Hints:
The chain is α/β, with parallel strands linked by helices. It has helices spanning about 25-30, 40-55, 55-75, 100-110, 120-135, 150-160, 170, 190-205, 225-235, 245-255, 265-270, 275, 280-290, 295-315, 335-345, and strands spanning about 1-5, 15-20, 35, 90, 115, 140-145, 165, 210-215, 220, 225, 235-240, 320-325. The longest helix is centred in the last third of the chain and has 24 residues, at about 295-315.
Amino acid sequence: MKTIDAAALELGKYDEIIDVRAPIEFAEDHLPGAINLPVLSDEERVIVGTIYKQESVFEARKIGASFVSANLSRYLAGELRDRPGGYKPLIYCWRGGQRSRSMATVFTEVGWPVTLLEGGYKAFRNRVLSDLRELPRRFTYRVLAGLTGTGKTKILKDLEGRGEQVLDLEGLANHQGSLLGEPEGGQNMSQKHFESRLWHALSGFDPARPVWTEAESSKIGQVFCPKSLLHMLRASIRIEVEVPMQDRVAYLHANYSGWEQRRDVLMGKLKWLNRRHGQAEIDTWSELADAGHWQELVQRLLEVHYDPAYRSALEKNSLGPSRTIQAGALLGDGCSQAAEILLTMDFGLLAPILEDR
């Protein structure tokens, strides 16, 4: 079997990346694209650990080996049954120790050319943290900004469909970004997993081409944007997307219509704004929701909360030069037209502010 250092790791070289750690470890973070084939389940890991501490190392290893053997046998007869003779997997565990080597040893005997990640996930994690201090500085960014409901995410998706390099931070964070945004599938992203996904996205970009992204605060949902990237975004060329209020309301109402069936959940979120806007305003929002006046509720939320909050943040955080584009009819072809305009704009006269780079 071969080994590779995390610093030289190229994920695309392998047919499959196998994380043999327990599911609870995999859920917190894992190498991009990895599948989880744990040699010890969460429960088995606890059993082995308890025996190791309370009885003896020998008994723990013996019980652990029985668990590992049974699990490997199941994978070979199940998930890995159709893998061909030339199958080239990368295998890793927490520190490149017994768990990954046990699978690698069996795979080698089968005849598969296996590669082990030296230092395991811990080494990969150290590389991610190290790279994220410098990697964001390699690129030129064009940052879409604008009030809530101006279709920035939709414009980015259109740009991506045209072959442009797009850094979708909200997508990477599994969040829609605003107070009303929810993680996809109802599951929050861990900070470690967000950073791994961000590292993977940035590593795939060409520094000779611009990277399009959206202006974000330091916190996206439950995760934080690395300071190195945040500095670059705030100092980069900014394009303000402007959309008439009626189009913003229609767009947001269409995209957040699910709240109409979950009125109690919505009001639970809005109650967090009590300190900022007072109970009287919260009561007004509740009355509009009860009456089914959803578009009126959306407009009031924009006027009272979102728009003032955005303008305040813009004054504090925006450093780079800016342009403005119009993108009406967001439910029609407004976003596509905005993307076309962006691709024809001359940004040569707008140099990003990067003295502290």
